[in-house]
Amino acid sequence: MRRLLDGLYDGCAWAAAVSMVAILLVILVQVFGSAIGVYVRGTDAYAGYAMASASFFALAHTLTRGEHIRVTLFMDKAPPGLRRVLELWCLGAAVALSAAFAYYSWDMVWWSYAYNDVSSAQDETPLWIPQLTMAIGVTVLTVAFLDQLVAVLTGRGMAQDDGSLKAME
């Protein structure tokens, strides 16, 4: 199971990297198109879609590598027993909030698809397509938070100051 989850997080990181390359390519099309007097419709919107895609796909991988910003002011001062309780509360809240975000993201994708909602920009892209990357990214983030919560509950790990999990000793 660990291998599957790590593969999922790494796959999302690769999707984020591909999205960043797409941003570069779209901007290059804009620059070179401008240089030769050709305007390509929708490039601004596509750069924005790729930026959102890169951001949401990177969330879970960033979390599991301990790269998210964490405010540990109270947790650093707490005794180990209270620190565990605080860690469980924080992870539980994170699971609940990210699950709600994922639910409403998928709901938005569904309604955009059902009503054939398209971008108001010149590209007129069906909005469910870029929204799908957000829904997938937030869903995988929820899985990552749940993964960390289970690790702390089962005694396999405690979050470190950098957000990564350390095996219990």
How many strand segments?
A: 2
SSE succession? HHHHHEE
Largest sheet: 2 strands, antiparallel
Radius of gyration: 20 Å
Widest sheet, order of strands? 1-2
Can you put this structure into words, describing what you see?
The mean pLDDT is 88. Strands 1-2 form a two-stranded antiparallel ribbon. It has five helices and two strands; from the N terminus they run αααααββ. It has helices at 2-35, 43-64, 73-77, 80-114, 128-153, and strands spanning 158-159, 165-166. It has one domain (2-166). It starts with a helix and ends with a strand. The chain is mainly alpha-helical.
Task: State the gist of this model.
This protein has 169 residues and is mostly helical. The protein has helices at 2-35, 43-64, 73-77, 80-114, 128-153, and strands at 158-159, 165-166.
Keywords:
single chain, 169 residues, mainly alpha, two-stranded antiparallel ribbon, 5 helices
